[in-house]
Amino acid sequence: MLTRRFLPDTPLLDCFSAQYLELGSPNNPLSSVSGFSYCLIGPNSSDHWASCYGPVFSFYLSILEVERVKMAYNSLVRSVLISCNQRLPQSSSLYHFPILLRHRPTHRRHPYLWPLSLRYSSTQFVQESAQGDAEGERGRLNVVNILEERGLLESLTSDSLRSACSDPGLPALRVYCGFDPTAESLHLGNLLGIIVLSWFLRCGHKVVALVGGATARVGDPSGKSLERPELDLLALDRNVSGISTTISRILGRNHGAKCFSILNNYDWWKDVKLLDFLKDVGKFARMGVMMSKESVRKRLESEQGMSYTEFTYQLLQGYDFLRLFRDEEVSVQIGGSDQWGNITAGTDLIRRILQAEGAYGLTFPLLLKSDGTKFGKSEDGAIWLSPSLLSPYQFYQYLFSVPDSDVVRFLKILTFLSMEEIAQIERDMQGPGYVPNTAQRRLAEEVTLFVHGEVGLDEARKATEALRPGAETKLDWKIIEAIAEDVPSCFLPYDNVMNISLLDLSVSIGLLESKSAARRLLKQGGLYLNNSRVDSEAKKIEADDIVDGKVILLSAGKKNKMIVRIS
To answer: What HAMAP family does UniProt report for this protein, alphabetically (predicted)?
Structure first.
């Protein structure tokens, strides 16, 4: 992999060759690199233009701060296509991404080949990078078609959205998804909204995440059989902050900090008076339409019924869309399939109040297992996206446990792997020599990387490895803590542990029934101290055996483990 660094005003051509060398020149820094098809374009020492042409050259550059990419089209360079690396690493303000030069071979020398100046902010670049990969002569990639192909499209309010997504003559769309702060973190079911927003970003559009600091005080009745409990204001503020942080962390790491906006609808609802709302909004709402919404109809047919507060929720969310359409140029609202009624309430208000067209809604399926149960819930509760509520290791393990019947579908909707790669994984699963859980491991790695980043994925991998006796991963206190909820533990004073026989310790903490059972297991090679096999019955606990001075991990076979916490 070749990497160059340059400042914002450096001409793009300079980045490829400071000496503007022709193909085959002995001084060409790339001529000795095997396995590359590449192109170098620029003036040589005779001040004439030359081109070194190949199919495609992928050159990874490091950008400090770039404001805008100017594209030059001529007979030599057909287009400059920019595509975002899916695993974009970040080091302070430094971003890495591939720039692909594609052109048609030509032998003509052209006097008007312009240098391509880079003036594009790194964060804004990441936001629109996927658009460039699909642009050029064909227009931007159609995000609706992508979502449909991957099983992420349930309904559209108008099929015109499909053409609006790819028309190169139209500006990029602004898209929003709402998140009600009913808990201090989003969970795995909410991740689909972030993933769909990410697909819009990858296709060159702009996104807004709307946190419902106001609407959460009312409670969305969609998909609920009972009215939501009322949140106190302190808890609500904490939830707003926690969810905003989660969204910012995921989208910021994967797309850049300035490629999206996070808004709180309380910022405008706090100034809306009841009489004004009834006059300006309520009179445009038709009771028949509101009563026909599925979320309303089901609740009215139930014994619990529906409060007037819940009944008005669709107008509140509809007004959110109107405000964003009018003030933020947002033209698309996305949401789960249970949000269809609320989304269409918004498009209807925009049409009636603003007398405007061009507001669209898009829904995606809820995250369900093949048996129809919700994916994202465990016996212990929700699968949270916040690492403070659920460790990356536990998040990884939940995804790793997906059955074969679901894993391919989840690879399509929860990851950004190409459909070709997913199809190959599916073929591998059906072929001979397939290693069980390979597809699940890929799913867990991709989703954990997207949600928790490289650090979180590394933590999850190490913790997973720590559960395997004999693993070479060096244990530390954090790794052992990551698996603590899946492994029984006990507390012992330091003095009670030092110099005690390992066999005696295994029996005293209940890992093994008797000392004779411990001896048999040791002779069979099944007794481990901090994942290292113990071969001697005389082994006693020493200070170096206590990981970071805090814990010891004992294993009896592959499955029976115990964490000893030293106090």
So the answer is: Tyr_tRNA_synth_type1
